[in-house]
Amino acid sequence: MLPFVADMPPLEQERILCSISSAVKYAVPANIVLAVAEKEGGKPGQWVRNTNGTHDVGAMQFNTAYLRELARYGIAAEDVAAAGCYAFELAAWRLRKHLRNDQGDLWTRAANYHSRTPRFNAVYRTDLMKKAAKWADWLEARFVTVDVTRADATPSMPMANAANAPAALTARR
Length: 173
Prior knowledge:
By secondary structure, the chain is mainly α. It has a single domain (10-170), classed as Lysozyme, CATH 1.10.530. The protein contains 7 helices and 5 strands, in the order ααβββαααααββ. It has helices at residues 10-26, 30-40, 67-71, 77-81, 86-101, 106-111, 118-140, and strands at 47-49, 55-57, 62-63, 144-147, 167-170. The longest helix has 23 residues, at 118-140. InterPro entries: Lysozyme-like_dom_sf (IPR023346), Transglycosylase_SLT_dom_1 (IPR008258).
C-alpha cells in the first residue's frame, strides 16, 4: 500500500489508486480522472437509473448508452460494475476520446463525460474544474507533476520525498 492513501477508507484508496494508474495508462491528466471519479461518486456494483431510461453503472457511473460501443469488444455491464480498476480504465479511455476528439475547451470536453447537452455540461464543468484544482494541489504535494495545459510546463517537485516521487500529468485552468 502506498503511504499517501494508507489512512483512507478502502473505497477511497481504490478510487485514488485506480484513477491515477488509469490516467497514466491512457495519458489523461490525473487530476481530471480523480475529479470525475469524485464527481460521479459511484460504488462497485451500483446501478443508478436516469430519467432518460439509461443507467449509470459502477464506480465511475459509466452510462449504459456507451455499452453498445463496448459490446463489440466483449465488455458487458457486469464488467463496468465490478470492483477494481477496470471501470476507471474504461472511464479514462472514454475521457481520452473526449479530450482528443470533441470540440470546445479542455473543461467542456472533459465534462462531455457527463453530457454534451450544453446546460448539463456547464454545471458539470464548473464543479469538475473546482474538483480538478483540488486534486491538482493534492497530486502536486505528492508527485512530480506536469501541467499539460502549458506548452512551457516544467515538472513541479512535490514537497515531500521529491527524489523518489512518480510523475503525474495534471491540467490547470
